[in-house]
């Protein structure tokens, strides 16, 4: 919250703040609203502090979809390509493997994208 208050002390212009599902608490969301910040927090399935004021807008769903797409690529790299625990010594070799892995994840998605 300190970063938000430093960014806009006394501002009435609304900002947005993204956060994980773990930040879906009443206190956190209330503090953000008092600071003129819209919370783009992934909703808990039950007892969510995010209500219809936030979720009714198209701008709420869009970042959630983008985040899911980004996490899919990293999940693919960890599970399919074995990047969860690297067998290569040294940062440069791991970096090279990562640079080759990420385009491969896009190529793996390509048939589904072309079929749609």
Please give a quick description of this structure.
This protein is mainly alpha-helical.
Walk me through what this model shows.
- The protein has 116 residues and is mainly α.
- It folds into two domains: 1-56, no CATH class; 61-116, no CATH class.
- Helices cover 57% and strands 9% of the residues.
- A two-stranded parallel ribbon has the order 1-2.
- Helix 4 packs across helix 5 (91-115).
Keywords:
mainly alpha; 116 residues; 2 domains
Number of helices: 5
Strand order of the largest sheet: 1-2
Strand-pairing-aware structural class: mainly alpha
Query: What spatial form do the alpha-carbon principal axes imply?
Result: elongated
Strand content: 5-15%
Query: Which H/E pattern describes the elements?
Result: HEHEHHH
What's the average pLDDT? 79
Describe the largest sheet.
2 strands, parallel
Query: Ranges with pLDDT <50 over ≥5 residues?
Result: none
Q: How many domains comprise the coordinates?
A: 2
Query: Helical amount among residues, as a percent range?
Result: 55-70%
Number of strands: 2
Radius of gyration: 19 Å
Task: Give the helix/strand layout.
Blueprint (H helix, E strand, L loop, with lengths): L1 H6 L7 E5 L6 H9 L2 E5 L10 H4 L2 H22 L11 H25 L1
Parallel strand pairs: 1-2
């Amino acid at each position: 919250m300190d970063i938000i208050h430093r960014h806009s002390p006394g501002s009435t212009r609304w900002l947005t703040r993204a956060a994980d599902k773990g930040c879906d608490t009443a206190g956190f969301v209330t503090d953000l609203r008092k600071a003129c910040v819209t919370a783009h927090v992934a909703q808990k399935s039950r007892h969510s502090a995010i209500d219809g004021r936030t979720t009714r807008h198209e701008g709420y769903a869009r970042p959630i979809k983008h985040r899911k797409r980004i996490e899919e690529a990293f999940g693919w790299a960890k599970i399919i390509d074995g990047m969860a625990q690297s067998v290569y010594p040294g940062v440069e070799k791991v970096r090279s493997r990562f640079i080759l892995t990420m385009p491969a994840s896009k190529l793996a998605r390509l048939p589904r994208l072309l079929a749609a």
